[in-house]
Amino acid sequence: MSSNKTKKLINNVHECERQSNEGMVAVNPGMSLVDGYTVVVRTDAPQYLSENKVIVISGGGSGHEPGHAGFVAKGMLTAAACGSVFASPPPLCIMAAINAVCQQKTGCDIIMVVTNYTGDRLNFGIACERARVKGHNVEMVVVGEDCALDSVDHSAGRRGLAGTIFIHKIAGAMAEMGKSFSDMVAYLNTVKSKMGTIGLCLSPCSVPGSAPTFTLGNDEMELGLGIHGEAGIKRIKVQTAKEAVKTMMDHMTNKQSSTHIDIESGDRVALMINNLGGTSVLELNLVAKEAISYLESKGVSIDRAYCGSFLTSLEMAGVSISVLHVDDTVLEYLDLPTASPVWRPPYMAPGQKFRKTPGLVTVPTEDKIVFDETAAKLDSGTAGLVFKALQSACEKLLAMEEELNDLDKQSGDSDTGSTLGAGAKAILEKLGPASAPTLPVDCPHTLALTLGQITETKMGGSSGALYSLFFTGAAQELKTTTKESLSAALSSGLQAIMKYGGAKPGYRTMVDPLHAAVQSMTDAKNSSLSVIESLKKAAEAATKAAAATKDMDAQAGRASYVNKSLLDKPDPGALAVASWMTAAVNTL
Question: For the domain 380-587, what is the CATH code?
Fold first, then answer.
């Protein structure tokens, strides 16, 4: 493959269309592929034919998947004829779709839903005439709802875009309900005039085996392009989702344009947000939110909203927005169940008839600390020491931010220092002045719970969760203030980290210095050492354990995915624990 061609997961450029459909029918055996043609037909077509219902056939170039073949199912299309990528299917292919449904029967009622492109009109038109010669009753419903063009003079007219899928759905529902051929033709031709679509892209698409169809700068987006990568009406600078949706909708509803759609306050519409192929679901939902907000701000009732991939342009990054005026009858057709694997109706609450943007659900906040009123309190002198120890520990973490970030480059994304620094900064802000602390330094139990909440909300990520577990786990043991309770608190905090984090001593994590400190405190329980002397021994043990992590194999966290030869320095999380512990003890 030459360097100017884009990469694609295909086997053969000339067979990718049929092989794609082979995969689709393999996954969805309610569809069948016609031998010798790129035609998808309902597997139950013979049964459908015996019910004398109107046959609905559509199709067009491949590359727009899931359109159109993905909508072959009960309640939607009876068959779809697929051409080469971005090329109309030839008449023989379309006739194969007709014959696959009608078999030897004559006099079938057939509606062909065709997008308004010259090739599609010509090829489906030829097939229509041939089908009539064979005795079938056939009509074409040509869909062209593009609102991008300022004028249709001297052109092929408005292009058929994703709004065509609305017509597929309505036509399929009417056929399934047994509506007459003449009623369907008249109704579909009326409905198709009540919708509009406009597209916007951030990057081009490329036909398999070829270079991209056009180029866009990193700061550019194309407004009003077609689904084959045809140029839009103008190229604009990249905008936010909110701004882009406004640009699209303002153009679509601009009364100065001959192709606009009239949308007034009080109108009822169905909205379709369509992925042009390469847009993430995150972005798609953002666009849906902004489009709904735009219309609701105009007083428009959005009775139904659909968001997903309906009619794509290969891997083009972009979206199209379609708006269809609706009433109760249209909604009945849109809501009629279909077996199509790609038509996804919006999830509505039980009994809900019309879509309405839901309000926010309010819940009790979790920011209130629940603690034991009977927990032991410290005298003012000891509380002052706790204040200084906590202050020193946080200041040490802030001073080490750059050093810890550098260490984290070995195995992470260089943010350990920044993450711990954010927590330390938040604690210092909450701590207040030594003369009037605003954290409960006189109650270790409440202080530990408070520190757990601060680290959880201000640090974020794994570090925030681990420190929150540590402080919350330790809090229960701090209802009393003895050398034994302090040792038990460290042990409980460590056990919480190990239980939920999965790390164990020797895994090259913050567990290693904490475990060493706990072991030291446990050994000192029956000794004559004072609390401060025990803490000093624990900090020394933690420091040695942190230094030893440089020779350990990482078995937890991001470091476990890194080549061992690259890990020749202490683990940053372990070093942080030893450092703040030492800073706190030195203050005492």
Answer: 1.25.40.340
